[in-house]
Amino acid sequence: MIQGIWDQFLKIVKEEAGSRVVETWFKAVTLYEWDSIRSIVYLQAPNSFVKDWILGNYNELVQHHLKRLLNVETLKVVFLDFTNENIEKKLTDTTNKKTELVPAVLDKPKHALLKRLQSKNRGSFNVSYQFETFVVGPSNSLASAAAQAITENPGELYNPLFIYGGSGLGKTHLLHAIGNGIRARNKKAMVLYQTADRFVNEFISAIRFNKVHKFQAKYKNIDVLLIDDIQFISNKEQTQEAFFHIFNSLYDSHKQIVFSSDTFPQNIDGIAERLRSRLAWGLVTDIHVPSLETKVAILKRKADLHEEFLDDEVAHFIAMRVDSNIRELEGALVRVMAFSSLTNQPVSIELAKKVLLRVSDSTGMGVNFKQVIKCISNFYPYSLHDLCSKKRNRNLSFARHVAMFLMKKTTDKSLREIGSFLGGRDHSTVVHALNKVEKYSETNPAFLDQLRRMERAIRK
Questions:
Q1: Of the candidates 237, 265, 287, which is a domain's last residue?
Q2: What is the tally of structural domains in the chain?
């Protein structure tokens, strides 16, 4: 049963986050035990590096899907990063000493209602996400400068701060850096980091258990609110109404508010106009894909953090191989370093080529979104601008669905990355497109043949 649950989890993560995330991180992890009485999931990681990476980057993903697969309202996740012979001993010691995947952070509450929440959430900011570890370049300099400025004077400058950009470019890093920075300066400040989808789930739970007043009190009595991926409150009217009042209360009290999103506020669909205007009240800044020089600097900084030497030639090769986002850049570096460690070989240009070119040949990394769009334009009379637009006429929508289907089929990109590339659409829109194209191809042999020809053309 346990293995079946984990296999389902890996399949879901592969669809949502991409095959590269599964192969690099989650395939190395096993679901060791499920304690249904105490609602504790024990995961075994091969080392602390993998454990810390998953905790820092995919904790919400783990929590959300394991709760759904195990059919529970709440659970605790404990990572075991030791050898099998020590597991039995360690399991008995984890009751009072365990690592939890906690969705929110709350520091030093000012009244009793928040005290219990604070003790549960202490320390769940990612301590590796500091301004010192954030590599600044032309693509992110304004966002970084604004984040540091509000850390020094929260609630006084750039309130709210809205940071937008594609997946994996450093938005979450900056939000955690703000939280870590403010907490270091003022230990009495109440700082809350929350993802938008977790905010939605928390609000739904508050309604369900008649605890809306506690929900509102929690948010209205904090000093700094950091909301990641705010676009996920789209089309949720009740949640938006609750958030609207929370925003007004915090703003009127000169409390700092920071948002991140994958797109500009005016381009977020399904948002009430009065809330949309508030998102853009302060400073709106974006983060672009970094330049080659910035990517090389990021790689060398990451290697230094792991006490590894990275030659300039190797860093340039890795930077040239990854043109999408920083998360994939770091993943490529980790694969090279891991292969070097496992085979006891020095990190060299030959080793980097062996690792990354092999992955490229086996996973379809050689295909990118632009190649898919070029193929689509040969079969349908639409440009990239048309496909990214908000227009929804029948033929254009169908071509857009086909593009999403082929992007998922021929690349290892995640659903969110595909949606973000095609006009900032969310992953649920991509899922709808995949299902629609799949069903249509099952009943239309001519279209299925065309789909196969398009796929062959793209892979060539």
A1: 287
A2: 4
